[in-house]
Design brief:
It is a single chain. This protein is of the alpha/beta class. Helices cover about 50% and strands about 15% of the residues. The protein has one domain (about 5-245): Rossmann fold (3-Layer(aba) Sandwich), CATH 3.40.50. Strand 1 (about 5-10), helix 1 (about 15-25) and strand 2 (about 30-35) form a beta-alpha-beta unit. The termini are far apart. About 45% of the residues are buried.
Amino acid sequence: MRLDSRIAIVTGSGQGIGRAVARVLASEGTAVLLASRTFSRVKQVADEITEAGGRALAVGCDVLRPGDIDAAVGACLDAFGPPDILVNNAQGGHMGGGMPLEETSPELVEQALRGGLFATFHAMRACLPHMKERGGTIVNFGSSTGVGGDPGFAAYGLNKEAIHGLTKHAAREWGRYGITVNTICPAALTENLRAKFQENPRWQQAILKAVPLGRLGDPEKDIAPAVVALATDLRFLTGATLMLDGGRVLLR
């Protein structure tokens, strides 16, 4: 129980990486507020955690709506207390895919930014007053798509790179409060990606060919433990980007 008595908010925790992060944090003793646009999914994850002896509360939260984010933070305060950990995993709005840059409209870019950058920004600001006196851990999610500039994903990629910028600014300004802010760029085999691979095996082969380790990460075994590490052993790391992608993108 490395995180016993800690409290976390995890957005987009109804499936995939968010679900894995919530489950692993709970297994380490964290009380977890699970927020997702689809309440039925996040409720199921919360039930899994509580049945295993953990503490969890599910709330419906569309990150495109700042009021929903504020309400989620309020629910966390009422149920468990002030958050020690914020994991901004949710990405609403336009996800892109196969759309050339010259065909990407400003409206699609705005959708991506509202569902990613702005949602992350608002959640961070909503949690800041509760972390100022106690310190905290903020984990944002970027993407190797943005770092590498993958063709066809302009709106999604530039949004994720903007989150990197937000991470750096917050790390500089909020370090004096004992708050660390880092970005994780994962390459994980989630339920949605597994389904897409079944539809397009050649795309799967092309992606795996670009990964030196020859596989995508397991959300619960390869990605979620990094969040635990950032809240425990890596408390001196801030403003960093962790490429948890099997070596697909190598930074300097």
